[in-house]
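3.2 Worked example (two chains)
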Amino acid sequence: MDSTKRWTVVGVIVLIIALLWLFWPKAEEKPAPVKGPVAVTPAAAPSAAAPAAEGPLTATVLFDYDSSALRPGEATKLDDLAAKAKGRASDRVDAVGHADRIGSEPYNAGLSRRRAEAVRNHLVGKGVEAARIRAEAKGESEAATGTACQKMGPENRDNRKLVECLQRDRRVEVRLAAGR
């Protein structure tokens, strides 16, 4: 093949690569916004009577060691969630109780159930329908602390350092989710 044909082939290949590079859609590029008026159908227009759909709302309520009584500071989290729940009639409220690992597993299962029920009762007292609230107990099975509190000495109530470290495990996770 003579040099003229070789340079022609190289030129055509370079031209094809350049055209592909210019016109190939880039994954990171966003499409340009459309300018001009946007048509809105009456069904898609927001209504003052119907609130816009919101995502799930959550709150985590912490408890004292070996207690299912709500702390005064934690109750305000539930008050806020209850106010939002009343405006979202079709939503379900899940209250999942947890306990730390100090104590027997059966005892901690019962304690986490009592914590979830305390949250449920508080929400009912704030006007949330009891039928919408599902209370569940996980006991010590889903620790929030993970391995952070390992090897801290004896696992009993007298080990204040361990009791303090395990605070995040003594909780009820409340979730306001769509559906029943």
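3.2.1 Second chain
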Amino acid sequence: MTAAPAPEVFAALADPTRWRVLTLLAERGDGTATTLAGELPVSRPAVIKHLAVLDRAGLVEARRRGREVRYTVRPERLDAAARDLADLAAAWDARLAAIKRMAEEG
């Protein structure tokens, strides 16, 4: 897996339910599909599917503890996404500043 976020990271974050799952995990430190489903308006099987998408995107990690599968957030993927967005914003700021300079000189 590469360090830079792939499109699936942003696609996973775009879904409101997955965003809520990620938020709940970040607030609690970890959780199971059952505990998460208790706080969401979706079924446990739906939560499992959302967790699978987050896992494929590298945003959560699953660890088996006995019969339970506990999920935790992988903050490095979120950090990489934030850096990519900051780089993109900086590039656009530079372009807009260049356009402004040209407009003021012309």
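3.3 Remarks
The chain is about 65% helix and 10% strand.
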